[in-house]
Design brief:
The protein is mainly alpha-helical. It contains twelve helices and two strands; from the N terminus they run αβααβααααααααα.
Length: 269
């Protein structure tokens, strides 16, 4: 039996630890691992670490195995399907404004031994992808949580991540910026060779000025409304609109500000 051999093997197994393993404990490990040898070895390794600290020391019992499975410390495959399922559940719970579910999935990942900095990076992504400018403070708070995890370590850093996911869950949601930048990427790929309009070009030399670099540029600060009726995109993208703010959170004020800017632009001509 592979597990029995792993317990006694002094070269590649746990033999040097001189552990004892009850037959029913090894059968329990086999049952939990469903025939997956790697999963079985992971359970056995966790059980071995628990058995060394248990009374009597050095005996892997069925109870020790069950505790090892519950802890799920080394069972968590950071490159496997469960890893991606859990982070997906966390992200979608945040997106759906469910702080309780978000906390639960966060706890599942942390207790399973996930790298807290990986979670922090994903939480930052949630802030920019699902919150955006509906609450610009969300990104700052998530960056602070990342710094807190890095500074104080674990387990105290758990609370910083918990604070971040709850904040994101209850924050107003907007993917307007995410969608806008996706459209920008498509246009950039299609129009990467488009020249910068002459009036937007820098003109540090006399020759460039003779070639009309900078000609027609309007300095917004010199205008009463601080907005010029000036096209700033390439000609074939004239009047293209990428960012369309929602009415959620701060974006409602941004939408009102953009309407004011458009009004001022049309009135400056």
């Amino acid at each position: 039996m592979l597990l029995k051999r792993a317990v006694t093997d002094t070269e590649r197994g746990l033999g040097p630890l001189q552990l004892r393993a009850a037959p029913d404990a090894l059968r329990t490990i086999a049952s939990y691992s469903s025939g997956d040898a790697r999963s079985a070895y992971n359970i056995l390794e966790v059980a071995a670490s628990l058995a060394r600290a248990a009374e009597p020391a050095g005996e892997i019992t069925k109870d020790v195995v069950q505790e090892a499975v519950q802890k799920r410390i080394l069972l968590y495959d950071k490159s496997g399907e469960e890893h991606y399922n859990l982070i997906s559940a966390l992200h979608k719970s945040v997106r759906n404004s469910d702080p309780d579910a978000a906390l639960y999935w966060l706890g599942r990942m942390l207790e399973a031994g996930e790298d807290p900095l990986y979670i922090a990076r994903r939480v930052v992504r949630m802030a920019v992808e699902d919150i955006g400018l509906a609450d610009p403070q969300a990104l700052a708070l998530c960056m602070a949580a990342r710094d807190a995890v890095d500074f104080i370590g674990m387990p105290e850093g758990n609370l910083a991540l918990a604070q971040a996911v709850v904040y994101l869950s209850v924050a107003p949601k907007s993917n307007a910026l995410y969608t806008a930048y996706g459209s920008v990427q498509e246009d950039v790929e299609r129009t990467a060779a488009e020249p910068v309009p002459l009036h937007l070009r820098n003109a540090p030399t006399g020759l460039m000025k003779k070639l009309d670099y900078g000609k027609g540029y309007e300095y917004a600060h010199d205008l009463e409304g601080k907005v010029a009726d000036m096209q700033c995109l390439p000609d074939n993208l004239r009047d293209r609109t990428y960012y369309q703010p929602t009415n959620e959170g701060v974006e409602k004020r941004i939408s009102e500000r953009l309407a004011e800017i458009r009004k001022r632009r049309s009135g400056s001509s």
